[in-house]
UniProtKB/TrEMBL annotation:
Coiled coil: none annotated. Belongs to the UPF0301 (AlgH) family. The gene is yqgE_1. Residues 96-118 are annotated as: Disordered. The lineage of its organism: Bacteria, Pseudomonadati, Pseudomonadota, Gammaproteobacteria, Enterobacterales. Gene3D superfamilies: VC0467-like. This is Uncharacterized ACR, COG1678. It comes from the Bacteria.
Amino acid sequence: MNLQHHFLIAMPALQDPIFRRSVVYICEYNDDGAMGIIVNKPLENLQIDGILEKLKIVAEPRNPDIRLDKPVMLGGPLAEDRGFILHSPPSDFSSSIRISDNTRDHHVARRAGNSRYR
């Protein structure tokens, strides 16, 4: 069974501190392994604007509907020095993962409970 582009929802009995009550989106699933992102656990006291500040990135003038005070999600326990950005079109970056012809990463954000997509 290929689990790519599926969500895994933690069973109620799972008590692992990271994966307890987690929703994990499986981005890749192949013979080399699997990669997933926890999409429903915001990090405490960390927002997008805080990440930009830590990286010394100055935000360019933008659409006022794009808010930088949104929470940063946990993602997972591995490679904590890296991150993923769930974004909507028209941005097609070379590192973007197309979920399917009809589904983009903004659909993942909607399912994860992002208030912008409710």
